[in-house]
Amino acid sequence: MKFTIIAETNGDLLHQTTYQLIGAISNIGSKSTVICPNGKGSSEASKIKGVEKIISVNGDCFDLFDGSAWASAINSVCEGTVIISASPNGREIGSIIAAKRNIPIIQDVTGISPGITVTRPIYSGKATETLEISGESVITLRPNAFENADIGNEAPISVVDQTSDLRVAIIEAINKASERLDVTEADIIISGGRGMGSVDNFSHLESIADSLDAAVGASRAVVDEWGMPHRMQVGQTGKTVSPSLYIAVGISGAIQHLAGMRSSKYIVAINKDPDAPIFTIADYGIVASWEEALPILKSELMKL
Ligand SMILES: Cc1cc2nc3c(=O)[nH]c(=O)nc-3n(C[C@H](O)[C@H](O)[C@H](O)COP(=O)(O)OP(=O)(O)OC[C@H]3O[C@@H](n4cnc5c(N)ncnc54)[C@H](O)[C@@H]3O)c2cc1C
């Protein structure tokens, strides 16, 4: 089976998830073609093991993000099964490509094995679904669920120029009023719960977030009871996130919260109750009040 991976980028460089997409396909013994929108990250991608060739798809439509325009430009060079990140942009592009090609899409996959068989969490992580796939499909892979591919390759790069066939063009994108990263976009998230005591105390999380370039998240308790914006809520009825690092502060770890963040790569929990359920899934647990722990964390970060 042929695999086409659509690279995700961060500025001019590849996003870490691209290494994971390539790693996931290499691990099932297959090589992949990697599409780099507007050529970004193409020379970097050519050095990753498991990549057979790079197609740099260039065009005006890539100046600003528009899922329809991107999918339209990318689709013509896709072959076989299409692999893309389960990020918000990846899900959007993936579903449009699946519709254009009239093939199924399997979203938010966390495991893939030869054959091919994929697994993904369902019912807010309470069960895992296993699917056998025959024929072509689009598969979105959850960030941080797969190991990075290694460097050590020299794949050829070809260039394809595309003009958008869409009648609608995005001419300007205006940033959100909030400068802060959205929880679904961030690689590091620091979230607060009822244990923070008040909305005002979230300023302590914000100052740590500033030094880590992180997003600030929240449990449903503080969204419902203190009026924090719903876009910050992580969990079953909020956002599903999978960052490299998730720091939960004053969050008990109710099943509905865990449903939205349990696949984070590293989980750090700060809670004064040693029996808080959040510690059952934390990689690092700090049994302390946030009033004690956060100043120490902040001063250590300042040293770095
Ligand atoms: C259908 C449904 C959907 C839901 N969806 C979501 C969802 O999407 N997201 C979500 O988060 N919840 C969701 N919930 C709610 C969930 O069940 C919990 O009620 C909620 O997550 C609890 O939030 P919390 O951990 O902030 O508060 P609490 O459970 O009250 O926990 C506060 C924690 O803070 C600790 N603490 C207190 N003081 C301090 C201190 N000074 N320093 C450090 N730690 C301290 C305590 O030991 C405690 O563990 C849902 C519930 C239902 C029924």
Explained architecture:
- The protein starts with a strand and ends with a helix.
- The chain has 8 helices and 17 strands.
- By secondary structure, the protein is of the alpha/beta class.
- Helix 3 packs across helix 4.
- It folds into 2 domains: 159 residues, Rossmann fold, CATH 3.40.50.620; 116 residues, TPP-binding domain (Rossmann fold), CATH 3.40.50.
- The mean pLDDT is 94.
- The strands form 4 sheets. It has a 7-stranded parallel beta sheet, sandwiched between helices.
- The site of flavin-adenine dinucleotide has 28 residues, from helix 6, helix 7, strand 16 and helix 8.
- Flavin-adenine dinucleotide binds next to helix 6, helix 7, strand 16 and helix 8.
Count of β-strands: 17
The number of helical runs is: 8
The first-to-last residue Cα distance is 46 Å
**Strand portion:** 25-35%
Adjacency order of strands in the biggest sheet: 7-11-6-1-4-5-12
Percentage of residues assigned to helices = 25-40%
Name given to the CATH architecture of the largest domain: 3-Layer(aba) Sandwich
Write down the CATH class of the largest domain: Alpha Beta
